[in-house]
Amino acid sequence: MKRLFSCVFAFLVLCLAGNLWAGPADFSALAEKCGPAVVNIGTERKTSSVGPEDFFGEMFRNLPPGFERFFGFEGQDRQGQRRRRAPQRSQKSLGSGFLISADGYIVTNNHVVADADSITVTLDNGKGREETRKAELIGADEETDLALLKITSSRTLPYLEFGNSDALKVGEWLLAIGNPFGLDHTVTAGILSAKGRDIKSGPFDNFLQTDASINPGNSGGPLLNMEGRVVGINTAIIASGQGIGFAIPSTMAARIIDDIRQGRKVSRGWLGVQIQEVDEDMAKALGLKEPKGALVGQVMPGEPAQKAGMQDGDVIMSVDGKAIEDTSDLLRTIAGKAPGSTVTLLLWRNGQTHEVKVLLGERSVSQQRTEGSNHQGGQSEIEQLGLSVRPITGNERRQHSVPAGEGLMITSVESGHAAQDADLRAGDIILQANMQAVGDVATLSKIIKEQGIPRGALALKIKRGGSTFFRTLQLKK
């Protein structure tokens, strides 16, 4: 009896283990349900470029080295040289998209349809055959690489709904459907590999990363969760990698697509500051517990931040109670606010927190994240930093618009010291040290002794040409 019980128990354990490890057995029901709403997008334009990329386009458009879009055009070769013009001819390319309404609205990537002279959509006619329709470009948003098309049809069309990409967890199953290499309605499955990826393709990068197989031609196709809702729009891959794809999260896409569909201008909030990351050394120099937030390198004159009393050197810690991790997080958060709305910023300034309310302006596409005279007094060496400085002259102050009470000109930088490591150069003007104005050597030396050396780091506000920024110097305690 005991032996029989042991056998039964072992059998149950094996069954349970099998169920735990098997995972979803197949995706056939999901593919059958969602597939009809996925469409193939063909574009045509007049072009003089030639080469093997004519069918799918030059896949390195507007991306940093190593990344590629699934589709696009560019009139340059891979060395960045203009190609010799050939006789103008018609160029055709393919991408993907998906219906979001029964009356024919279609979401895709902007780079799929940008500069196209004509757009056609191929879809299932509901009877097992394909039908092709001319599509109208309703609108696009270049900064997030999203576009909205419209087709007309006498029948009610199948469509997909957006899901909540914020609720996704790393490791969840995902399904991609698209048109890779012209192979329509190709279905691939994988997991969510990571969230919040910044691949430096635009100011609002916040991509989902997946290992579902996606290739040229997948651009604009849906990335689906197991409920059949769109949680991402497939957009880019790493050219040299396998199983590393990126998708625009649905929570970002849904709002922008809705604005375009309703005929509203896609608008974003604007602070009017140049920002930079807070690394570990900068955090030490400013007395922060951890390297988080966004450091204000420069408050732009006449912009919302200046009107609200923000200052160069402020560290933005939170927006409306939401903690800010880094500069990308700040850009996305502010861009998600409506122009004309008021936000509350928590700032770190001179070792204390401050709250300010800022009435946001409107961000334009061109606004991007950034970024031999009389000597008054003699030249002095700052041994701890490895540089020599002197006070600036009155002419230099006027020429470089240096505020009163600030300004030490760097005259030389020694190799192998902290100043060189921080990329300081002769001709740079030191305005502040640890957010305190420095206009003479004695003040700078005092800040180094009382703050820089005990903390192991010093933050200098530097003016170079027309730019103002911060540099962090590591100091030995």
Structure description:
The chain is α+β, with helices and mostly antiparallel strands and 477 residues long. The chain has four domains: 30-150, Thrombin, subunit H (Beta Barrel); 165-261, Thrombin, subunit H; 269-362, PDZ domain (Pdz3 Domain); 380-474, Pdz3 Domain (Roll). Helices cover 19% and strands 35% of the residues. The chain has ten helices and 29 strands. The chain has helices at residues 2-22, 28-34, 110-113, 250-261, 280-286, 304-307, 327-335, 394-400, 418-421, 441-455; strands at residues 38-47, 67-69, 89-99, 105-108, 118-124, 130-134, 136-141, 146-150, 173-178, 186-197, 207-210, 222-224, 230-238, 245-249, 269-270, 273-277, 294-299, 315-319, 322-323, 342-349, 352-359, 361-362, 380-382, 387-391, 408-413, 429-433, 436-437, 457-464, 467-474. A hairpin with a 5-residue loop joins strand 5 (118-124) and strand 6 (130-134).
Uncertain ranges: 11-22, 48-62, 71-86, 368-378
The CATH superfamily of the largest domain bears the name Trypsin-like serine proteases
Mean pLDDT across the residues is: 82
Described by its quaternary structure, the protein is single chain
Strand order of the largest sheet: 6-5-1-3-4-8-7
Q: So what's the overall shape?
A: elongated
What is the CATH C level class of the largest domain, in words? Answer: Mainly Beta
Q: How many DSSP helices?
A: 10
> Strand tally, please?
29
Helix content: 10-25%
What would you say the CATH architecture of the largest domain is?
Beta Barrel
Radius of gyration: 28 Å
Number of domains: 4
User: Structural class from helices and strands?
Assistant: alpha+beta
Biggest β-sheet description? 7 strands, antiparallel
Share in β-strands: 25-35%
Might you state the CATH topology name of the largest domain?
Answer: Thrombin, subunit H
How far apart the termini lie comes to 75 Å
